[in-house]
# Entry
Amino acid sequence: LPDSTLLVADQNNNAIRQVTLAGVVSTYANSAGTSGSANGAAATASFNGPEDVAAAPDGTVYVADTFNFLVRRISGGMVSTEAGDGTQGFVDATGTAAEFYGLEGIGLTADGSVLWIADGNGGNGTPFNRVRRLQVP
# Structure
């Protein structure tokens, strides 16, 4: 994040954690740690096996919500779905019409305008490995 806070996808606890430069760890999103796909306030929104995060220069955070097959966005303390319809698959489309198979990593360009998504096989051995591109606001 712009304030040098490190964000970590805590996959087994379905949460996004933050770590300060002083080493203080706290929950950034999904304080209950329950699995789900609820959007809303960061404290009460839910994820299902988030695997990676990427932060834009303006502080917007994108989450590879792996077991929900979604790309989620955290901005202004709110979580929303940026892309994916929640169905496992490979469909190139805009926003929630897209489908992801095995979100394994994400990264942003330096200006925060393009999100690159490693959409792999989800660990099941199926030979699907693709890099997907998502233009973000």
